[in-house]
Amino acid sequence: MPPVKRIYIESLGCAKNQVDSELLLTYAMENGYERTEDAEEADVIVVNTCGFIESAKKESIDTFFSLHEQNPDARIIMAGCLAQRYGHSMELEEADAIFGNRDLSLFPEILSGKEKLLIPEYPDPYAERDDRRVLLNFPGSAYLKISEGCNHRCAYCAIPVIRGPLRSRPMEKVVAEAERLIESGIHEINIVAQDLGAYGTDDGGASRFVELMDHLSSLSGDVFYRMLYIHPDTFPEGLIELCRERRNILPYFDIPFQHADPKVLRPMKRTGNPETYLALIERIRTALPDAVIRTTLMLGFPGEDREAFDTLLGFVRSARFDWMGSFLYSREEDTPAYDMRGEEEHEKAGKKAARWQKELEAVQEEITAERLQRFVGNEYTALIEEKVEGEDLAIGRIYAQAPDVDGLTVIMGRGMEPGDLVRVGIRAVRGVDLEGVRIG
């Protein structure tokens, strides 16, 4: 009997990429591979790359060479967004194979050695399988991807170049996958896509996202749903009301506003302004007083000056986001914004934007600290992620904390295991984290 081949996968970038990594591992296991969490003992190493912005591309390349150096005897495969975007022009002799990400069912051809360069297009019809055998989250939590690609065509964004146009998964496939996750003991299903609100619009019709959430939230089981990434300009009508009706849809809204000043948003090919964005936030918080709102903001896009930044700063102070992430504009080839300015001007603007970013983040840190105080003295259900060995402590998250991007809750108590749901009384704020004690 031949020895079992071991595969190690390093998943970089977003949650959607993590779902791809889980599918790659599923295909590998079906073809005789065993997953290992130690790259040095692997027979095959897969680096599932991100290619969204310059810093992510650099991290992907650095990770590839670091893993290759750790285990030079293993076959090493570059997969994912960077491979899809640059695979045909990439000179990477160290790679034993390069594999794109639009048809993961072809991965066995790469594993077998039949193909060394495979940059596929989407199969038609597009429908990812719904039976992942491996989940890379902490126990009890999983991501569920409902669509691929994007039709918004924001001027700065390389996602349509990498992932192509919007392709929604059939609703019955999404619901079937949710049912399988619930049956396997998952308590938290994080719904992900490039824009959840665009789900179903690729056939030219209206959004079907509220309809999808209606179906999902009607499934039986001890499960709750978290919605990640909703474009503010196409926020679905009826979603807020559905969240009010269904307690298993968390009042957590991840809305990447990117900016607030129209003279920056219009060249981005976005339609909002401070008034419409603040009105959306007000509608959410009026209907759902416990709502948590996270956003992402971009600094340094062409046309941003101090006046525009001050508009953004004022918007953040008025919006009082619970959580905020920020990043600097990356000048990406094949995007409409690439030719808006040259490289020298871009580098100069980037240095100025980096200073503004620190100013913005300092403001948001104070807001987050203040917003977190409202949880103190109240009780919530927490999903346990990790047990602290040797102590009566565990690390978990309440509804206000999304995996990987927000703070955590440190919980005192006994008998808590990863994947458990426990009631927690919050008694203090520690930086961006909460501190609580198990109840009962």
Task: Characterise the protein shown here.
By secondary structure, this protein is α/β, with parallel strands linked by helices. The chain has 3 domains: 5-118, Rossmann fold (3-Layer(aba) Sandwich), CATH 3.40.50; 141-373, tm_1862 like domain (pyruvate-formate lyase- activating enzyme); 376-438, OB fold (Dihydrolipoamide Acetyltransferase, E2P) (Beta Barrel), CATH 2.40.50. Helix content is 32%, strand content 23%. The protein has helices spanning 15-30, 54-70, 81-86, 107-111, 159-163, 171-183, 209-217, 239-245, 262-268, 274-287, 306-319, 343-372, and strands at residues 5-11, 33-35, 44-49, 75-80, 97-99, 117-118, 141-145, 147-148, 167-168, 188-192, 224-227, 249-254, 292-299, 323-328, 379-388, 393-397, 409-412, 421-430, 433-438. The strands form 4 sheets. The protein has a 6-stranded parallel beta sheet with strand order 2-1-3-4-5-6, with helices on both faces. It has a 6-stranded parallel beta sheet with strand order 7-10-11-12-13-14. The radius of gyration is 22 Å and the shape is globular. It starts with a strand and ends with a strand.
Helices, strands, pairings?
Blueprint lengths: L4 E7 L3 H16 L2 E3 L8 E6 L4 H17 L4 E6 H6 L10 E3 L7 H5 L5 E2 L22 E5 L1 E2 L10 H5 L3 E2 L2 H13 L4 E5 L16 H9 L6 E4 L11 H7 L3 E6 L7 H7 L5 H14 L4 E8 L6 H14 L3 E6 L14 H30 L6 E10 L4 E5 L11 E4 L8 E10 L2 E6 L2
Parallel strand pairs: 1-2, 1-3, 3-4, 4-5, 5-6, 7-10, 10-11, 11-12, 12-13, 13-14, 17-19
Antiparallel strand pairs: 8-9, 15-16, 15-18, 16-17, 18-19
Helix pairs in contact: 11-12
